[in-house]
Specification:
Layout (H helix, E strand, L loop, with lengths): L1 E4 L2 H24 L8 H32 L7 H31 L9 H25 L1 E4 L5
Antiparallel strand pairs: 1-2
Helix pairs in contact: 1-2, 1-4, 2-3, 3-4
Length: about 150
């Protein structure tokens, strides 16, 4: 018997997605403001660009994962919740949180007064939920093996 991963592309995409989110959302986002010479407006400008690109890359990973699951006939299994939750988080971030945070950042860059908000906490919470689901999905992908009988001629 030969064991083979059932979702190899999905597995790779899941852990790359987790790596991108962890590196950017949990490290770059706050570290850039600690660099010498980086002012708040410059840091916010960098953050807007980086998170815009991250969002597009996350959509690429989500689409690749969905295609891999559908291709292998596993969409309506236990995987569906683990795939749907990160995609719902991504939808909320794409169409609500990122635009709202972008407006706030632009106001701050322009020197306008910006009132306190919990939007950053919502974003971080969604990132934590997304990463947790993706890690579990990746582990499920690892456990989903296809076994084939090796034929010796």
């Amino acid at each position: 018997m030969i064991a083979q991963l059932k979702y190899p592309v999905g597995l790779l995409s899941v852990f790359l997605w987790v790596g991108f989110v962890c590196a950017i959302s949990f490290m770059e986002a706050w570290l850039k403001f600690r660099a010498p010479g980086v002012t708040t407006p410059i840091g916010l400008s960098i953050g807007r660009l980086v998170f815009s690109v991250l969002n597009k890359i996350e959509w690429l990973f989500a689409i690749v994962i969905l295609i891999n699951i559908i291709w292998k006939g596993g969409l309506f299994t236990t995987f569906h919740i683990l795939v749907c939750v990160p995609i719902i988080m991504l939808l909320l971030q794409t169409f609500w949180l990122l635009p709202a945070l972008d407006i706030r950042a632009e106001m701050h860059i322009q020197g306008q007064e910006v009132v306190q908000s919990n939007l950053h906490f919502y974003y971080v919470g969604m990132e934590l939920i997304k990463v947790a689901c993706l890690v579990v999905l990746g582990l499920r992908f690892l456990n989903a093996m296809e076994f084939q009988q090796k034929i010796n001629l």
